[in-house]
TrEMBL record:
<dbReference type="InterPro" id="IPR021866">
    <property type="entry name" value="SpoIIAA-like"/>
</dbReference>
<dbReference type="InterPro" id="IPR038396">
    <property type="entry name" value="SpoIIAA-like_sf"/>
</dbReference>
<dbReference type="InterPro" id="IPR036513">
    <property type="entry name" value="STAS_dom_sf"/>
</dbReference>
<protein>
    <submittedName>
        <fullName>STAS/SEC14 domain-containing protein</fullName>
    </submittedName>
</protein>
<dbReference type="Pfam" id="PF11964">
    <property type="entry name" value="SpoIIAA-like"/>
</dbReference>
Amino acid sequence: MITIIPEAPENVAAFNASGEVTKEDFENLVFPVVKEKVEHFHELNYLLYLDTDIDNFTVGAWFEDALLGLKNLTNWNRAAIVTDQKGIQNFTDIFSVLMPGEFKSFPKENLYNALYWCKNGNEVEV
């Protein structure tokens, strides 16, 4: 299931993925929120907090996630994937070379730093 992260900055489409994630999660929640953000801000700042194993994404969810990327290809500005799964962190960092905009992975303990980075491109100074 995907839910909105309510404390996200206004210019960030931020979602929490937990349990099983389906294509309906993308169709009913992610796509409408992303569309609204792109229409309002003319760019996409996106955050996905993975509170589930990547194996819990159905095939339809993977297709919809890929479709999200293609539909908004020219609008990507910043995207953060928040997870403690090393494989996903590595994939995100490699993927950033192939996509327009900036993509970055953050460990779960740095959710608020990831939200701040999505909002303005800087990390919180420690």
